[in-house]
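Database export, one record per block. Field names are fixed; values are copied verbatim from the stored entry.
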Amino acid sequence: MSAKILIIDDDVTLCQTLDQILHQAGYTTILAHTAEDGLHQIQKQSPDLVLLDVMIPIMGGWVACRRIRAFSNVPILFLTALGGVQSTVRGLEVGGDDYLVKPIDSAELLARIKAHLRRARKQVSPENRLVFGQGELTVDFSTQKVLVDGEEVELTPREFDLLAILINYAGRVLTPDVLAEKAWGMTDKAARNNIKPYVHYLRKKIERDPAMPRWIQTVRGVGYRFVEE
């Protein structure tokens, strides 16, 4: 059965273009031209992935994403004309899994979609539950849950994949290129550039003091490493 992809965008022409690209790639598509209809379609048809425009009228993409996250963990890829680090970080903060700036190459879009669908379907080993420090940080790979000081924090699938790779290579410095490839299966420039904002937001969720990180440390000019204590 082909994966179902929901496109939420008020640009009818763009929706038709995306619909054609996705159909040719073997996907089933659902189109929604308002955020409200998009929310309805998610509850009604349970898509495998959502392409969401930030500038969707009335509700807006940021609010729509938060509402989706209230009841669904479906991968959400923002597809928008808004660029810049601040917009990318905000997209991650509201629960998005990826942030793609228009215009985007169709081959890159399909590669991102494929990678997110693969991660969403990936099963993890039920034995892996790691505790760091004196219980300050707990990572359960079977449920993809993370506890900070005993309290659960919510990570998007993409954030969890990044944390998992950093932990798997604890003590080693990983460049953005390596992190993007190992965590997300992506080698393009946009994916590499997304590592920094993802690390930023991951620190906000798992570090007591994000400005002075204990777990995810920066090696200036090289990359990042996870420090076990």
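Remark 1: The chain has two domains: 4-121, 129-226.
Remark 2: Residues 129-226 form a domain with the Arc Repressor Mutant, subunit A fold (CATH 1.10.10.10).
End of record.
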